Amino acid sequence: MDLKTILSVITDDMQQVDATIRARLSSEVVLINEIGAHIVSAGGKRLRPALVLMAARALGCSSSEPVLHAAMIEFIHSSTLLHDDVVDESGLRRGLKTANAIWGNAGAVLSGDFLYSRAFQMMVESGRMRVLQVMADATNAIAEGEVLQLLNCGDPDTDEARYLRVIELKTARLFEAGCRLGAIAAEQDETVQARLHAYGHHLGLAFQLIDDVLDYTADSAESGKAVGNDLAEGKPTLPLIHAMREGSTAQRELIRKAIREGDARQLHEIVAIVKATGAIPYTQAMAQQQSERAIAALDGLPDTPHRRSMIALAHFNTHRAA
Description:
Radius of gyration: 19 Å
CATH class: Mainly Alpha
Structural class: mainly alpha
Number of domains: 1
CATH architecture: Orthogonal Bundle
CATH superfamily: Farnesyl Diphosphate Synthase
Strand content: under 5%
CATH topology: Farnesyl Diphosphate Synthase
Distance between the termini: 15 Å
Oligomer: single chain
Number of strands: 2
Number of helices: 17
């Protein structure tokens, strides 16, 4: 089942989310409007807002509240991407030039700040202190993850535990928050909220693990970013960590040097090492384990089309090519 089919249960909701995003991006500052239009046109999977909607609808919520929460989550995510691209000096995302490549670092950072603050305005609008608490905790954790990743960059001694902590903070926390917001909108108690939180946690980890595999296996035309991008930024992701652990001394030193220098010139040789040491199936197996835990977290919830789509999404993630 492809992603479009999986998300077809929330097609109408997602159209409302897109309309909300466009309306809330509006500003009297021309540059913000231009960068906002660029973000919208870039598209993307919109998984985080989709999780808000699927969780809420799976739990019987029929109100429009999840639409507001979903748009707000996407604003938070988009703002982190704007800031990430500046930190990583990225020039390409989703096959298009990044905002910083077009408008410069200052414009990208400040527009990211606008999206953050607009998202918090929307949280206040929801009228739920619990929503503010969840999102304040999530955004703080994301910032911690960004700093921890920065410390790991260029450090070939980063181990598996440090890597997993980064993706837990940087990626999984927003997945968790989105799923929990869906449960909150559905007026569910803490027990059910915790189940949805666990689903988002494990799905988020699996999603990032697969993303890090794709950095060495994907077709750049399909993925929208250059293969070996993480290596060029000196990021010691799990495929590299495993390859260093299992490779020969010479292989290990080649990868260590590339991480220290943020050098992808020997990408072909490093990809060959990654594949020869079993780093790809190792990382995929960990992603599969996380996906299974995500699905298990939904046990006991009503058997609805939206719950089935959440299960299908976890299966889809481990086999996606972009």
